[in-house]
Amino acid sequence: MAPTQSTQAIGRARGLTSEEAARRLAVVGPNAVRTHRAQWLPVLVAQLRSPLLVLLAGAAAVSFFLGEQTDAVIIGVILVVSVGLGFTNEYRAARAAEALHSRIRHEAMVVRDGVPVRVDVVGLVPGDLVQLQRGQVVPADLLLLSTATLLCDEGILTGETAHVEKQAASDGAAQVAELDDPTRAWMGTVVVGGSGLGVVTATGGRTEFGRLALALGSRHGETEFQAGLRRFSGLLVIVAGALTTCVFVANMVLHRPLIDALLFSLAIAVGITPQLLPAIVSISLAVGSRTLARQRVLVKRLVCIEDLGDTEILMTDKTGTLTEGRMELMRSLGPDGAPSDEPVTIALPCTSAPASVLPVGEVTPADLDVLDAALWASPLARRPRSLVAPLRRVAVLPFDHDRQRASVVVEHPDGRRELWVKGAPEQVLAACGFVPPGTRDLLDAEFSAGGRVVAAARRVLGAGVGDELDVRQERDLDLVGFLVFSDPPKASARVALVRLRSLGIDVKLITGDNPLVAQRVCAELGLEVRAVATGAELRGLDDSALRDLVAGTTIFARVTPEDKQRIVRAQRASGFDVAFLGDGVNDASAIHAADIGISVDTATDVAKDAADIVLLEKDLGVLADGVVEGRRIFANTIKYVLMGTSSNFGNMFSAAIASAILPFLPMLPPQILLGNLLYDTSQLAIPGDTVDAEQLRRPSHWDLRLVRRWMVLFGPVSSAFDLGTFAVLLWVFHADAALFHAGWFVESLATQALVIFVIRTRRSPFYRSRPSVGLVVAVLAAVLGGVALPFTPLGPPLGFVPLPGSLLAVIVAMVAAYLVLVEVAKRRFFRLARSGLPDSRPRRRPPHERRVRRRAARFSSPHLDARGG
Ligand SMILES: Nc1ncnc2c1ncn2[C@@H]1O[C@H](COP(=O)(O)OP(=O)(O)OP(=O)(O)O)[C@@H](O)[C@H]1O
Ligand SMILES: [Mg+2]
């Protein structure tokens, strides 16, 4: 356990001076458990970590000393260029990720030089005085100096869902802190109620949370997409390993020179493995994140873009997303529906502003939430404002999303005390002693009109009663009336909903508001509602009943934060990829529970923190753009994968077979590597390729089985074709080794590079889909370069001779025939794939680990020593 700061700190209500804070920061380092600085060394090391490259370099070195200098040098150059290519692309992407990270700031309220200032959480040092408020993530381990009904959710540390009540430390505070010590607030936990002030005792890696986060390692958890990539690479490694071994053994049996056989088999293995896959993915993501940033979507981690593309169900809140979110008080009504000032009067002091903001007249908009701010600003509140100004607020029980009420004990100048309550009408009526007949009908009519309705009620207290206020006192109230706020549907949301539907995304509404209001909003926006459920209906259900209900329901209304989370879980449990969009404290746990958590720049800390994606604007249209971008990236990555598993793979496979049959090696190791390099370079244009509109219409999913079936079908098609080429070369052109090498080099490069035009689209024939200019240029350049090579001065050292015109003509014809063959096979393949083939979904990561990682992203610094001690 961390040693506590001396209790003298309690006396230092002025906090640290800026100089002292800077001095301490220099000593203890930033308050971070991660670094997001792009570092070139690890990127380079990752490039070199491929055992294949190391083996190949080793073998080349050996052959250098055995006298094969030219070969060895050529291989060396090709390897350096390959690694350089991967490195520059990956590093550029890492820089893009760094830039992205710096755009999302996390701050805490800290007292420095005697005044409260906002400080980047990374700059906190032991001894800093930190203010805590509902919705905040505790920015460091704290010893609490004062609290006001401070409640923390420590689930991130303890795994328990119960909220923990905190209290201020007395002077003789224990020197050793235990996790269950109520006078401590721990970094990474969430303030769910009340407020407090604490002094920082530990930062960064020395906090409880820091230890937990560091134990997980600094790498981010895999997303579904990355897991898919990893399994795919694993598949290829196995295939490459088996093939290489066979080739090597066969060549040994044929008494070929050891080094030649080794170099040849290694070159084949290099040819098969998709070395550029990581680079392709990184470029796609970096380009995608820049595009998204322009569309006002910030992605916390690059890889989340692809998961965004997976979205099948979007669960969203109402206020500000489907509605304008700019509230205006329209009416203040008595219980009978007649206009009355009284409800406004009662409601005004029931704000979440701390009780210390006294008298009531001094409440400022900064202390208020949207609804309360609208109330205070309303012209209808002019007279009531002067009525409440002389009142004293004795005690406050702030609004919370579970009970959906706010209460306050007010004292009149003559000493009379009253309990004033405002909140969701259902909740306030439940606490009223008598409800006049007709009131519920009045209420339903107001709800159906779609506005936000809040009820006000009161109870007279005995003299001197009410210094302390708790929930049990919210009873036997007299209903005073209702406040009706307008919150009109957003015009842009209608268009966005249509777009989301056309993307195959099912939109559902989860709100704390009344079901009739939710229905009205959906009706106005044209969102088809299958069924409506309220939080109360869900609470009695067990998991499987809940899952069934959630599956068929569009609107979930009057839900608590806990309900929101359960709904998201239940929806995911039926196997769908669920995105959740919300901005309040009450949304944070649901954001965490979703596959893709989405929040808004203006959201509360916790919501923003829990999110993978932050919208600079709360707008569904922007989100639809993000989904499209995610799918585009995914589609392009899959193109590369399918490419790598068809011709490229087939060519290497035929070379392997041919090596066992031919009297000479079918291609020399440097030639294989060079062809591979040219091919790879042309593939670097894939991330910028266009994607057919129909491919963007469905959620994207990794389907390893599809890839495997593709490989099994197209590998042999390509190989069969190669064998045909061999036959032509040997028996028609009577090629010797050099001519054979040159002929097959050109033919294999042309087939494997050009086939992208067939594979990149599911349309048939392929020319009905237009590729990007960049791709066309890159592929043609690679192929023409390959064809020209034997005619250049580079030809002879590489072991090529110029091709006769007749052979070139035959190769052109064969390549054309090959493309037609693949086209036909492709059509059959996708027809088969469409019928049947249930999706095999990968297992998901344990949610808790994911939460720790997401929260750790908050405590990230661009400095290398970020791990702090
Ligand atoms: N400041 C407040 N004081 C009193 N009652 C409030 C206040 N804010 C909201 N309410 C009541 O509580 C209900 C639930 O509000 P809450 O903010 O929890 O819903 P929400 O789930 O965030 O809704 P949305 O989906 O619109 O964002 C509201 O419908 C309203 O009746
Ligand atoms: Mg909300």
Automatic annotation (TrEMBL):
It is found in: Cell inner membrane. It is a multi-pass membrane protein. SUPFAM superfamilies: Calcium ATPase, transduction domain A (SSF81653), Calcium ATPase, transmembrane domain M (SSF81665), HAD-like (SSF56784). Keywords: ATP-binding, Cell inner membrane, Cell membrane, Magnesium, Membrane, Nucleotide-binding, Phosphoprotein, Translocase, Transmembrane, Transmembrane helix. Residues 842-857 have a biased composition (Basic residues). Signal peptide: none annotated. Its EC number is 7.2.2.14. GO terms for molecular function: ATP binding; ATP hydrolysis activity; P-type magnesium transporter activity. The keyword Isomerase does not apply. It catalyses: Mg(2+)(out) + ATP + H2O = Mg(2+)(in) + ADP + phosphate + H(+); ATP + H2O = ADP + phosphate + H(+). Pfam families: Cation_ATPase_C (PF00689), Cation_ATPase_N (PF00690), E1-E2_ATPase (PF00122), Hydrolase (PF00702). Belongs to the cation transport ATPase (P-type) (TC 3.A.3) family. Type IIIB subfamily. This is Magnesium-transporting ATPase, P-type 1.
